[in-house]
UniProtKB/TrEMBL annotation:
Keywords: ATP-binding, DNA-binding, Nucleotide-binding. This is MutS-like protein. It holds the Pfam family MutS_V. Residues 255-436 form the DNA mismatch repair proteins mutS family domain. SMART domains: MUTSac. InterPro entries: DNA_mismatch_repair_MutS_C, DNA_mismatch_repair_MutS_core, DNA_mismatch_repair_MutS_sf, MutS, P-loop_NTPase. GO terms for molecular function: ATP binding; ATP-dependent DNA damage sensor activity; mismatched DNA binding. It comes from the Bacteria. GO terms for cellular component: cytosol. GO terms for biological process: mismatch repair. SUPFAM superfamilies: DNA repair protein MutS, domain III (SSF48334), P-loop containing nucleoside triphosphate hydrolases (SSF52540).
Length: 437
C-alpha cells in the first residue's frame, strides 16, 4: 500500500520540485551528491505508511542531528568511483589483463583516455573506501541503524577490500594490480561496492536533512497507530516562512473536523498548508516545523486550496470546485484514513449557494469519523448552523482593528469569528472615491 496524494495537493502545498520557488523539497535539498539528491527525491515521492518505519527513520535523523557530522566524502571521488564500478564487467581476469595492457599501449600512441580513467577510477575507489572505513570507526549508530552499519563494516573488513583501501593512491599503480582490481570490483566485489555507495547516499541525505532541522529549530513527530485518528502539534508553523507564527493543533476522533473561520488575509490558507506540509513530512520521517507533534498514520492527504477553472475541459471555477469536492467525497467513502482540507468551499458561486453547499458538505464529512477534515470559510453563519455536530471543533484566525487598519495575529483561537472588515478594507483602498471621480 502507498500513501495517496494527487498532483493538485502536491502543487498546492508546494512539496516537490527542485526548481520551484519556495518548495519544501528545495528547503531540504542540501545534499552534496547527485545520487543523494535522487534518494532525497525518492523519499519525497514515497512517504511511509507504517508507524514503526516512520519512527525508525526519524530516530536515525535525530541521531545524525545530535552527532552533527559533516559529510566526509569528496563528491568528485564518489562520481569517479560510481562510474568505475558501474561499468560493465569485461569477462575473465586474463581478458581484463589483456584489455588493460592494450589500453596502456593506446594511451601512449594516441589520445585514448581509457587507461588514465581506469587509474583515476581505482584511485577514487581507494579514497572513498578509506574515508568510509574511517567514518564507520567513529560512528555509534542508534539500534535501528546498527544492522546497516554492521553490513558496511563487514564489507570493508573483507581481506581483498582491506588490502585495496590500504594502498597508497599517490604511488604508481602497476598494470597487473590495476587489472586485478578492475576485474574484482566489477565482478566478485561489485555488490559490496554498490552497498557502500548506497550507504553513502543515505549518509548524504541524513546529514543534509538533519542539518536543516538543527538550523531551523525543527523537531521530529511521533507516529501512532492509524486507529487512534489523532493529530496533535505544538507551535506548528510553515517550514518555508522565516519567523512564521506557530499554532497549537488538536484533532482526534471526538473532534475530527476543524471548522475554521476568519477574514480574508487572516492566515487560514497558510495554516492549512502548514498542517498539510507538517503531516506529509511526518510521514516521511523528516523533521517538522513544530515544537512537538504526534499523529496517527494516514493513508493519504487531499487538499482543495487553490482550485481554478479548467478552460481545456470547459469547467467554470465553481464546477471545478464541485468536481474537486466529489473527488474528495469518493476518497473519504473509500474507507481510507485520510486528512482532507478545504479552503473556502464554493467561493465560485453566490453567497446563498455557498452557504448551503458548505453546510451540507461539512455535515456529510463529519460522519466519516475515521478521517480528519479541515474546512475553512469566511461565511461565518455556516458555523452557527453546525453547532449541533459534537465532533466539529470551531476555531478562527482573528483580525484586530487598530483604528481603520486591520492587523492579523495569525494565532488560532477557539470559536467562530465575528470579524466583518471587508467594506472597511475596500474603503481604506479608496476604491469608492476613485469611482466617484
Amino acid at each position: 500500500m502507498i500513501f495517496s496524494i494527487d498532483k493538485q495537493t502536491l502543487e498546492e502545498l508546494n512539496l516537490t520540485g527542485k526548481f520551484r520557488t519556495g518548495s519544501v523539497y528545495a528547503l531540504f535539498n542540501k545534499v552534496k551528491t547527485n545520487s543523494g539528491e535522487r534518494l532525497l527525491d525518492q523519499m519525497f515521492r514515497h512517504p511511509l505508511i507504517e508507524a514503526s518505519a516512520i519512527n525508525e527513520r526519524s530516530s536515525i535523523f535525530q541521531y545524525f542531528e545530535k552527532a552533527g557530522y559533516a559529510f566526509p566524502f569528496d563528491p568528485q571521488q564518489l562520481t569517479q568511483m560510481r562510474e568505475y564500478v558501474d561499468a560493465a564487467g569485461a569477462g575473465s581476469a586474463a581478458l581484463v589483463l589483456a584489455q588493460t595492457f592494450m589500453k596502456k599501449i593506446l594511451s601512449g600512441l594516441t589520445r585514448d583516455e581509457r587507461y588514465r580513467k581506469s587509474i583515476q577510477g581505482l584511485q577514487a575507489t581507494i579514497g572513498v573506501l578509506q574515508r568510509c572505513h574511517h567514518f564507520i570507526d567513529t560512528i555509534q549508530p542508534p539500534f535501528v541503524y546498527e544492522a546497516k552499519v554492521d553490513q558496511i563494516r563487514k564489507i570493508l573488513a573483507d581481506k581483498k577490500i582491506q588490502r585495496l583501501r590500504e594502498m597508497d593512491i599517490y604511488q604508481s599503480l602497476p598494470l597487473k594490480t590495476l587489472a586485478y582490481y578492475e576485474h574484482l570490483l566489477k565482478t566478485e566485489l561489485n555488490a559490496g561496492m554498490a552497498a557502500v555507495l548506497a550507504f553513502i547516499d543515505e549518509l548524504d541525505v541524513y546529514i543534509a536533512v538533519s542539518g536543516v532541522s538543527k538550523s531551523k529549530g525543527f523537531s521530529y513527530a511521533q507516529a501512532l497507530a492509524s486507529e487512534k485518528n489523532m493529530l496533535q502539534a505544538e507551535n506548528l508553523r510553515h517550514p518555508c516562512i522565516d519567523k512564521a507564527i506557530g499554532n497549537k493543533l488538536q484533532m482526534d476522533r471526538q473532534s475530527n473536523v476543524l471548522f475554521l473561520t476568519g477574514a480574508n488575509m487572516a492566515g487560514k490558507s497558510t495554516l492549512m498548508k502548514s498542517i498539510g506540509i507538517g503531516l506529509y513530512l511526518a510521514h516521511m520521517g523528516f523533521p517538522v516545523a513544530a515544537d512537538q507533534m504526534q499523529f496517527s498514520v494516514r493513508q493519504g492527504l487531499y487538499s482543495s486550496i487553490n482550485v481554478s477553472d479548467n478552460i481545456g475541459l470547459g469547467y467554470s471555477h465553481f464546477y471545478a470546485e464541485v468536481v474537486r469536492v466529489k473527488q474528495a467525497a469518493e476518497a473519504a467513502a473509500s474507507g481510507k484514513r485520510l486528512l482532507l482540507m478545504f479552503d473556502e468551499l464554493f467561493k465560485g458561486t453566490n453567497v446563498k449557494d455557498a452557504f448551503d453547499g458548505t453546510l451540507a458538505i461539512t455535515r456529510s464529512f463529519a460522519d466519516y469519523t475515521d478521517c480528519l477534515f479541515i474546512v475553512s470559510t469566511h461565511i461565518i453563519e455556516v458555523g452557527e448552523a453546525l453547532k449541533d455536530k459534537r465532533n466539529i471543533r470551531f476555531a478562527f484566525m482573528p483580525t484586530i482593528m487598530e483604528g481603520a487598519i486591520p492587523r492579523y495575529t495569525y494565532r488560532l483561537k477557539e470559536g467562530i469569528t465575528e470579524d466583518r472588515q471587508g467594506m472597511m478594507i475596500i474603503r481604506n483602498e479608496g476604491i469608492l472615491e476613485m469611482m466617484e471621480d
